[in-house]
Amino acid sequence: MEAKWLALARRPVLVAAILCSIQIAGVAVRFATAGPPVPRVHDEFSYLMAGETFASGRLAYPTHPMWVHFESPHIFHVPTKASFYPPGQSIALAVGFLLGHPWIGVILSTLLMIVAVYWSARQWLAPFWSLPVGILGLLMVLGTYWTNSYWGGAVNAIAGALVLGAAGILRRRPSRLHLALLVAGIALCAITRPFEGLVLSLSTCGWLLFRVAKQEGGALRNHLRTALPAVAVLSASAGMFLYYNYAVTGNPLRMPYSEGVDQYIARRKFLFEKDPPTPAYRHKVLREVYIGLKREGFSPYWRMLDNFSRANTIFLGMALLPLLLFALTLPLRGWRGNLLPPILLTAAGVGAMLTIPWVHPHYYAPFGSAALIATVAALRVARCFERASGRRGWVIVAAAMILLAARGGAHVRWQITVDPSKTPIWASRRHSIESALSATPHSHIILVRYSPSHDWNNEWVYNRADIDRAPVVWAREMGPEQNARLLEYFNERKAWLLEADAATPRLKPLPRPGR
Predict the structure, then answer these.
(1) Rounded Cα–Cα distance for residues 266 and 292 (Å)
(2) Cβ neighbours of residue 500 under 8 Å, at least 6 residues apart?
(3) Distance of alpha carbon 39 from alpha carbon 148, whole angstroms
(4) Maximum average pLDDT range among 25-29, 252-256, 264-268
(5) Chain-wide mean pLDDT for the chain?
(6) Domain that holds residue 221
(7) Which of 398, 416, 434 is the last residue of a domain?
(8) What was the pLDDT predicted at 273?
(9) pTM of the prediction?
(10) How many domains does the chain have?
């Protein structure tokens, strides 16, 4: 079995093709049984709006005259209409929009992630051991919300894989290509998960610089001679990043997230900070969203434990968690193997995650390759354990691989039957209404009315990037005077009222004032 495994592992192109084919098969099953995913989470709508903006050739849209009716979570309208979030995930969705559907961008990013994670592992591990990392990389996207939503994860993981894989080559020899790839990975970290990417990039570059400086024979000078392409990539990336900030916020040094935080966020950015003053909100439901996101009632220490358990759910599962924990103890045991940097990077990622008030698994994605390599490092050490019988620890490795195969089977089963990301009724209903109205020859405006007991997670008011050209416009119902001005502005559209919290949300024609 080991001989056949090794024979396959020595053919990296074939391995990558097999892993991507499995992911494509999973996507095909999902498409045949449930169709493309329907957005349901606030973040998804924000990313989709930005992706459509980029696909239209713009970086942001100007503030709409009626923007107060269109305020939505994680989108600001002043000084421009834009998403809070860094543009990396939205760029992937923009590719999908240009190809016909944003989900295509998600699928392509997962395939690139599978290849990037496997490539990164091959720079640190022998072919025999890099194959399990490739399989684990596949399982991060097969049947998970990284594939079946627009929320992200794969693009973040690509960034981390580029940084770690390039560092694995640069530790051995200078390379123009791989130094440029390292810088490209750092730039991609900056436009996907800036905080986590900064921790990863500083840790990796600091270690790499220290290692190269210790080498004899002018190694550092040799690396500097190969730096011109990397400098070009860094300059171009920095210029585009600063220009994007300027186009969205009017200040090249002010990120959109900082603008959104100042206008709306009522939650601390790090766990042990104090909450900032609560902003003034123009809509009750937005206040409930941002106050609800503070996650009151949890002590910082319980939040840290919950953050760790959430990151573990998508990367390893409880069955393989002991391997990661064992790997993290290796540096404390005085272990000095050549996989020490990925293990320490994994520990740095866990530490970074513990400082954030609320974590989802894709937040940890930049450290994904390092975590998977660390887990396989534990398998390597276990493989060398001597038993009393004289046999090596292959039993431990075989058991771990069986658990891994069982986890993969569970993912396929979820794809076919349960589908853990099943769309809520309200999201399906919203999608059906928008699709039906978009198919008519008329344009429409829907005023959304919420009940006092509205669930702030169920947000109906999200719009296309270009509101005035959208076939369907969703707006918040306000006072009679504000509603009249809104309907006058959209006087050519058919007006509807939606009571979103009714037992069966339905549209009712909305008579216009004076008609």
Answers:
(1) 9
(2) 426, 448, 449, 450, 451, 454, 458, 460
(3) 10
(4) 252-256
(5) 88
(6) 2-34+84-226+297-416
(7) 416
(8) 78
(9) 0.92
(10) 3
